[in-house]
Amino acid sequence: MSLPKLTPVPKFELGGCHITSNARAHLTQDDVLRALQRHQVGDWGDVNQHDRQANELALKEGSRLVSVYHSATGVKFYIITEADRSMTTVLLPEDY
Q1: SS (H, E, C) 35-46
Q2: Could you read off the pLDDT of 20-55 as tens digits, one per residue?
Q3: Which of 13, 22, 61, 84 minimizes the number of CB atoms within 10 Å of its CB?
Q4: What is the structure's pLDDT at 8?
């Protein structure tokens, strides 16, 4: 008998979600939705150890969260959730 796969619990609210027009032009909806789900459960993607630790501290202290992902076609993009958790933005590095 196999146990059902558990879905990770979100660690924070995303607030309103926004995607830049440049990111919308280069990313698929699946890329964005998959990354948003990862971001919300604390899978910060391709950040370095320092940024990973900063995000973990930000969860406790209520500061900005930043994740880095790559689309299925290799396009690098960021997801940033503001400190007050009112807004999450999906953007490409050149949009920053």
Answers
A1: HHHHHHCCCCEC
A2: 999 999 999 999 999 999 999 999 999 999 999 999
A3: 61
A4: 85
Query: What stretches of the chain show up as alpha helix (H) in DSSP?
Result: 21-26, 29-40, 49-61
Residue 84 to residues 9, 10, 26, 28, Cα–Cα distance (Å)? 20, 16, 28, 27
- What region does 42 belong to: left with phi over 0, alpha with psi -120 to 50, or beta? left
Q: 3-state class of 55 per DSSP?
A: helix
Nearest to 11 by CA among 58, 59, 55, 44: 59
pTM exceeds cut of 0.90: yes
Task: Report CA 71 to chain centroid distance, whole Å.
Answer: 12
Nearest to 42 by CA among 31, 27, 18, 58: 58
Q: Which residue has the tokens 């320092």?
A: 50
- CA 2 from chain centre, in angstroms, equals 31
